[in-house]
Specification:
Number of domains: 2
Distance between the termini: 102 Å
Largest sheet: 5 strands, antiparallel
Structural class: mainly beta
Shape: globular
Number of strands: 38
Oligomer: single chain
CATH superfamily of the largest domain: YVTN repeat-like/Quinoprotein amine dehydrogenase
Number of helices: 1
Helix content: under 10%
Length: about 450
């Protein structure tokens, strides 16, 4: 009996000890402040703040180099902070501090960031022409320094359909012209005017004026061809961030999405001619446009759209096309948009200059005002039509009268070397190796196509 009794006693002791509260050990802190630098330009830095265990509303202070620069009330776990009036090319440290009580504070870890430096305005330029009278180029795509594609309508004899091409490739030395035949609506093939081109990293998508498409390799071999099943308007621009997935915008408010297998016509909520589309890998997608070539009797509003899930929402719509912008809000001819990956700023070209939109604060700011146009070349900038770049300190805007301006993070410079009085850039592409602008050039015999090369530094192509 004694062994059995001892066995029962051990079971009871084990059950008793298992029901005891576990030892709390050292106190675990659950509140925290996590600050990160998300974007830096020449004179400002954007920071993200994530908090846990905070009692809202909370009184917080942002310090820079251990000195308070902003005190604010926080009502949610996450927020974005903007620190401005900084010095270019300078390192800073920031810290978030929560005032828990009158005498106690919670301090987050310090983070370090550096503002950008300016880039050089020193570019060398060269202008080429392709084709003869009747030729023009609509779009350009840079694959690398020795592979550039342009699309449009090219004649080697004036308006001779037997001497007609619709694309050309630069191999680093010479231009090679191509004649691509695409399907028309009777399922026959024909050499059509090509309107837009997009490099998806594994090839180039090209669309014609009737919505037919062709995908080619970097060297011009055909990968696939066909036409969109649903058509509304003439294609103007393509943008995508994944292979074989993109958005196509055009006239009459048309937006088509391609998911890799199916073309779907999306409802844009507008009949405005959409001139540009751009986005970032983090999910931002924008489109803008105006009744640029519409009937003069129609209202000609300009519009900016943003993709919100499966729907497009209007961010800005302006009908006063002839009015100078008031209160730093754009008006007149929304023609080009551009956003850098990871940035919360959107750039847009308009009839009165270049604007910047802060997605976080939902506010507009002038970036570059257009001066009154008088004579040629324009004193500072003509009418900007498109904007592209590689960083916040390397942006290029191209526009009417072949106006080409460069933003180096601090100042704008109008390039006078490549200017021609009757040149009209239709598209622009920028890479670390340089900038290429294409369009049409008016002459005594009619329009011809031009390509304007700009390369940083003193090296020439």
């Amino acid at each position: 009996m004694r062994p059995f009794f001892l066995f029962l006693l051990s079971l009871c002791w084990a059950a008793f000890t298992s029901c005891k509260e576990p030892s709390s050990g050292p106190e675990t802190r659950t509140d925290s402040l996590v600050l990160k630098v998300t974007e830096a330009d020449l004179t400002s830095v954007t920071l993200s703040l994530h908090t846990t265990g905070i009692i809202y509303p909370a009184a917080l202070t942002l310090t820079r180099n251990s000195q308070p620069v902003r005190t604010f009330s926080l009502n949610q776990p996450d927020t974005t902070l903007l620190d401005t009036a900084l010095t270019p090319s300078t390192a800073y440290t920031w810290q978030a501090i929560w005032k828990k009580t009158e005498t106690t504070f919670l301090k987050g870890e310090t983070v370090t960031g550096r503002t950008m430096d300016t880039t050089s305005h020193n570019f060398t330029w060269r202008m080429d022409t392709l084709g003869c009278a009747g030729s023009m180029l609509w779009d350009v795509a840079i694959v690398n320094d020795t592979c550039v594609w342009v699309v449009g309508d090219l004649f080697t004899k004036p308006y001779d359909s037997f001497e007609r091409y619709n694309a050309a490739m630069w191999n680093g030395k010479v231009w090679k012209k191509f004649r691509f035949a695409l399907q028309n609506w009777s399922n026959a093939t024909s050499v059509q005017i090509l309107r837009c081109i997009w490099n998806d990293g594994c090839g180039l998508w090209i669309f014609s004026e009737i919505g037919a498409y062709i995908k080619i390799s970097n060297l011009g071999s055909i990968v696939k061809t066909g036409k969109t099943l649903e058509r509304k308007g003439t294609p103007n621009k393509i943008w995508g961030d994944k292979q074989d997935q993109f958005y196509l915008v055009g006239t009459d408010g048309s937006i088509t999405r391609y998911n890799g297998s199916t073309f779907t016509l999306m409802e844009s909520g507008t009949t405005v001619d959409l001139l540009d589309v751009w986005g970032t890998p983090n999910g931002d997608v924008w489109a803008c446009g105006t009744y640029y070539f519409g009937n003069a009797e129609r209202k000609r509003p300009s519009i900016l759209l943003r993709l919100n899930g499966p729907f497009w929402e209007t961010v800005l719509s302006e009908e006063n096309e002839g009015s100078f912008p008031q209160n730093d809000v754009p008006s007149s001819v929304f023609s080009g948009i551009f956003q850098l990956p990871g940035s919360e700023k959107l750039f847009m070209t308009t009839g009165y200059g270049v604007f910047k939109y802060s997605i976080t604060s939902q506010k507009w700011y002038w970036v570059k005002k257009r001066t009154t146009f008088s004579g040629f070349p324009p004193p500072e900038m003509g009418i900007p039509f498109e904007i592209r770049g590689t960083a916040a300190n390397n942006l290029i805007a191209a526009g009417y009268h072949n106006s080409l301006v460069h933003f180096n993070g601090s100042t704008w410079k109008q390039f006078t070397e490549p200017l021609r009085e009757f040149a009209w850039p239709r598209s622009l592409a920028v890479s670390p190796g340089g900038v290429i602008s294409v369009g049409q050039l008016s002459g005594a015999d009619g329009f011809s196509a031009f390509i304007c090369f700009g390369q940083p530094g003193s090296r020439r192509r």
